[in-house]
Design a protein that fits this description.
It comes from Paraburkholderia humisilvae. Pfam families: HTH_1, LysR_substrate. Keywords: DNA-binding, Transcription, Transcription regulation. The protein has 11 helices and 12 strands. Helix 6 runs antiparallel to helix 11. The chain has a 5-stranded mixed beta sheet with strand order 4-3-5-12-6, with helices on both faces. A 3-stranded antiparallel beta sheet has the order 10-7-11. Strands 1-2 form a two-stranded antiparallel ribbon. The chain has 296 residues and is of the alpha/beta class. It has 3 domains: 80 residues, Arc Repressor Mutant, subunit A (Orthogonal Bundle), CATH 1.10.10.10; 105 residues, D-Maltodextrin-Binding Protein, domain 2; 93 residues, D-Maltodextrin-Binding Protein, domain 2, CATH 3.40.190. The radius of gyration is 22 Å and the shape is flat. It is 44% helix and 21% strand. Strand 8, helix 8 and strand 9 form a beta-alpha-beta unit.
Length: 296
């Protein structure tokens, strides 16, 4: 009877993280390990599979055909592993969680995470509300939400905590060019309806740099904002999370646009001590969000 090979889940996680972050050096830093330890793990995985998984590509590494196949399997194995652990650990979780999210996260990677949570905890009912940050904070203060992620700092609101600072950028078509080419015409802006931290930061930076501007398109939805920017109506201010591939970050040095400050992301709770089911969902959401932020 042939001896079966049992793949090491820890090694698979390092393998997947390396390519998700674009570098095994970044994976080593995230995992708190040395690059030599990560390289040893990669060699161990190749020995187990019996074929090279990566190959040199310029200054970096690329997946071989076998590596591409293993990466797909590894993601599925890790997802199943994590779901199994969550299910066993939280078998007794039940109740109702009301979660608020900005569109940046709700339109991208978090629905899959929430689906996995629902499968692992079938006794838990999750209600998600997607809205602007100001309204999410207001709903949390009123008790209409248990917990919410929101753009902006956590000052002045109880039971709130800072999560991370994210870089924000001017975003437009790659051929947007230099603002000096506008002559006396104001800079066309695409923005969310107020209140919006991104809109406020962009306008404040333009005013401080004495650059005239005009709003050409406002929208309550992120998809509308991206569509208007892709259509060339103007430029906008966002993070690069979920930025369409047709758009580009506009370099202030090359375009003459002012440098933008980072924007904080904060977590707001209704109560000082969250119920176990709220705490568990919050942990999963924060872990996923921070992974996504660090991979940008």
């Amino acid at each position: 009877m042939a001896v079966r090979t049992n793949l090491d889940m820890d090694v698979l996680r390092t393998f997947v993280m390396g390519f998700e972050l674009g570098s095994f050096a970044r994976a080593a830093d995230r995992l708190g390990r040395s690059q030599s330890a990560v390289s040893t793990q990669l060699r161990k995985l190749e020995d187990q599979i019996g074929t090279p998984l990566v190959q040199k590509s310029g200054r970096g590494l690329a997946l071989t055909t076998a590596g591409e196949s293993l990466l797909s399997y590894a993601k599925r194995l890790l997802e199943l592993n994590d779901e199994a652990v969550e299910t066993i650990r939280g078998a007794d979780l039940e109740g109702w969680v009301r979660l608020g999210l900005p569109q940046d996260f709700a339109d991208t990677f978090l629905p899959a995470v929430l689906g996995r949570f629902a499968r692992a905890h079938p006794k838990v009912r999750v209600e998600v509300q997607v809205d602007g940050s100001a309204r999410l904070i207001e709903k949390t203060l009123k008790g209409d939400l248990d917990v919410a992620l929101a753009w902006g700092n956590s000052n002045g609101t109880p039971y709130a905590e800072w999560v991370a600072n994210l870089s924000i950028a001017w975003v437009g078509l790659p051929e947007s060019g230099n603002i000096r080419g506008l002559g006396a015409d104001p800079l066309p802006l695409v923005a969310f309806e107020p209140p919006c931290s991104f809109r406020a930061a962009g306008i404040a930076a333009l005013d401080e740099a004495s650059i005239p501007w005009r709003l050409v398109f406002t929208s309550p939805s992120l998809s509308g904002l991206w569509a208007a920017t892709e259509a060339g109506l103007g430029i906008t201010v966002r993070t690069t999370i979920a930025m369409p591939r047709t758009l580009a970050v506009l370099d202030p040095l090359a375009t003459g646009l002012p440098v933008l400050p980072p924007i904080p992301l904060s977590l707001h709770r209704t109560e000082p001590e969250a119920r176990p089911v709220v705490r568990r969902l919050t942990e999963i959401v924060l872990e996923t969000v921070l992974e996504e932020i660090n991979s940008v």
